[in-house]
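agent> fetching stored inputs for the manganese (II) ion docking request
agent> found them:
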Amino acid sequence: MNLHEYQAKRLFAEHGVPIPQGEVATAPADAREITRELGGKVVVKAQVLTGGRGKAGGVKLAANPDEAEQHASDILGLDIKGFTVRKVLIDEQAPGIDQEIYLAVLIDRAARRPMVMASAAGGMDIEEVAETTPDKIFTVHIDPSLGVRGYQTTYLAAAMDLPRELWRDFHKIVVGLYNCFMSNDASLTEINPLVITGEGKLLAVDGKMTIDDNALSRQPRLAEMRDTDEEPEAEREARLSGINFIQLDGNIGCMVNGAGLAMTTMDIIKLFGGDPANFLDIGGGAKAEQVATALRLILSDPKVEAVLINIFGGITRGDEVARGIVEALSQVDTDVPMVVRLAGTNAEEGLEILAEAEMETAVTLSDAARKAVKAAQS
Ligand code: GDP
Ligand code: MN
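agent> prediction call returned; pasting tokens
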């Protein structure tokens, strides 16, 4: 789950990271009032769960309450990469910006540890920095039983050529960002940019934070921060039905039980020259209703030109799945071709139900994938 900038920065601040004073507004008149209270010079920032807001016209400086109101009215309602802006953050302007630094804590899966990543090339897209000038990115791995050590932040500060008088504050910010990461079960805490202000102080002007969904049950405060307005409709429905659903760019919808089998299915589609439209795991022991929901979700994507259903019955029963498919097809009117491969528990019963409904079936996964790819191409 991703948090908004204002939520992330408030959590950072709880751990001693310096952030600008600010307040969220949902109407231009509120933006004016907040600006007046903050003393005049502010930055008006779209709160949407995507990056690159600056380039998209979602971050604007205002010199007075009038300007802030005007910017808020321009930004509210704006569409940024498919997200509609419903809130703006009104932050006190940084007193000049001398330098923009990138700083983040994330998990390095290969090293099985949290990692601190820092770069003096902040402010821009870090993926781009990683691609074009990877030598400008510095990292240290953190041993969770020790936490961030002084020599590690000294190394990062020196590598980035940070002015010597800022090293101590930089250390405190890294420790704060790391503690914030750990105590909130985050998979990312990121400041881009961490600026050196005209007054020579470090200030986190942007914030991004991703919480591990699996930890939300023990992080009730964070679970409540979920902005359901921002969640794509299909993903919300999937989440509430206990379905793992991630949309991709291809045109073959997949419905599979088990994450491993879902990956295999996507691989095989690719092997036969096709392109999966989604990853979808209905989980173990799915009932007909869940299957119907899953199929509706897949078919709600206009890119989908064929559907491959691959179920290996264990706890999940083939007849339940078949009933779910038939049920879903009675709810949605579609002419998208579908191929079903059913194996394992109650597969025979399932195949009978599908035969009655005149569904196309396949015995092996290769056969099913070949048929689905062909159907999508024609
Ligand atoms: P993003 O584009 O979504 O990453 O949004 P950011 O919050 O990072 O803002 C984009 C850019 O706006 C930053 O890199 C800064 O250059 C600029 N910016 C943000 N806040 C301030 C501020 O308080 N003062 C000034 N002068 N520029 C700011
Ligand atoms: Mn940014």
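agent> quick read of the result: The first strand starts at residue 22 and ends at 25.
agent> awaiting further instructions
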